[in-house]
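Table 4 source record.
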Amino acid sequence: MKNKAICIFVVISMLVIGCASQPPTESQTPSDTTVNENHQVDNLEHTLDYSQGIADGIYGWTLSEDGSYYMLSAINEDGTPVESIAEQNFMRGGQGGMKGMDGEHKEMGQNQENPESAGEKKFEMKRSHGTTDDPLAMEQNDQASTQSVNAQGVYTESNITNSEYQTMLVFVPTEYMTINEDGSASFTDAVIGGYTAETAPIVFQNSNGGWRSGTPKAPEYADTLSAGMIYVSCGSRSRDAMTEDGAITGKAPIPVADLKAGVIALRANADVIPGDKERIISVGASGGGQMSSALGATGNMEEYYPYLYEAGAIGVTYDEATGTYSSEYDDSVYAAMAYCPIADIENADLAYAWLCYDSTLNKNGTLSETAGYYEFTDFQLALQEDAAYAFAEYINSLNLIDENGTKLSFPEKEDGTLDLREGTYYNAILQNISDALNATLAVQNDATVYITEKYGEDTSDWLTEKEDGTYQVISLANFINSTGLVRNKDIPGFDTLDMSAENDAFGTSDTKTVHYSASIAQLLKDNYETYESLEGFEAKQIDLYIQNALTGDEAKAIAEQTYLVNGTQIMLDVATGIQEADIAKYWRTRNGTADQHTSFSVAYNICIAAQMAGAKADYSLVWAMGHSSNEGTTTGTLVDWINEICMVKQ
């Protein structure tokens, strides 16, 4: 491994497929560390050989304020840790801009600068009734560390375009280490929760909420440290990462490639970083849940090697003679945890349209608040209906089979259309919701009182009590209307007509935004003549949508980008032998039944795909939880799951 310090920031043009990497330059003696207006740490000396970095006084193990863990930190010349530019405290309710379950989330599908600018739509923030005040739903990550964090070195050998993102922080329980006089650490024989410094699983968290770049942070799940686990907070570039001259450096699949580079750095520095490198558990929420699922599905996938090479990942090389890439290190993870993942992004609008189909019934969208924040045009409502049916066709095309061998699908009606509210897939979704409710009722003193207080005296249109005392949700539409699941997205809401959502995640480094949803573009193309006669249709806007995502020269490259971050499709392709990848052995997803930001069918599909590819999956909804990673305890906890999968006999 090269151990020369790197303190340059190479400006690169990130193409859809990675180009040749710039070679690393020689290090220079750092001057005072400063943070420029782009929030980069300038003149911070780095080395990828952490052992050598400790010997050279670049890194050192520093103690947290409460003495519970050590951090591998960058060290100033006087031996003091370099102050981190990372956020030190987690926001209540999750990551990356999530403000809890109070209707203030302002990321996916909303124009953040001016909500009314999206086609002059009316925008009114509303609260979903009957859910956000639920004590179980309001369980917060109170175990999140409020300790300050220090800066650490980069995890790539070259092309450091955004040092605030291309870094990671390593946290180790103090019992596992003794700090020597020379600053190095010796591992102890301490046992915490059944683990040692050698056997402890490594929780590998990203913070890519909203599909945005993530900076390393203090541990959100500090209880994993007290349970004896190693904790790593890994930054990565995404759609908002830019160079000083405006080039976007984080176009997909760079966020996942950066996380892979972090995984590689852990394995390359096994002599310094404690923990079992074969038990790395990826964790993320929202957009970070998407990145966690993509990381879990693409282990050692050769299509990623050009991106890893471009990102300067350790041990990834390019052979000019053969035109091939290779990697010295394994970039797969053992398990993947995805909270409310904004995943399968090119089909996310179909899934959302299907979920919200019954609650978007009129032009004004005023059906007991459940149609959401926007006033929809006739064109949008027609697109919404077609997208809902397209989702059913999409599900049928996937040939999903659950753990019991049941094919999950929607049946045809007599008129030849698919029935959106019948069939094995629909019934599975209802059962998932029912299971979440019953898990909550199991910890209530009186289930009937709980239901009555929350949802009124008469719930017969969506809920029935079974002979065994458990409850069954019988109508998705009435469940949505009765529990106040408020739509908070435009139509479409992910690949929006005005490109105000995740549209800057795809394309080239010199293209600010593009349309990427081929499924929506296909609907626009197929129904163009019908749509153009409707109020709200703008031909120029729709023509660009179709061109970007479907028919234009860039459409194929954009489709490759969306595929590389689509863990669901990749695992289904692994299951059928179309794709080669070492997928995570264990999967876990959690969505809240009050999640307004995505369809919880997306996470279900991830788990089904993982099972079909040979992995084990733990899927549950959490009753009354919003778009968050604060899952409470009714369906288990992250620590419980990690203990379960890491203490099994292999």
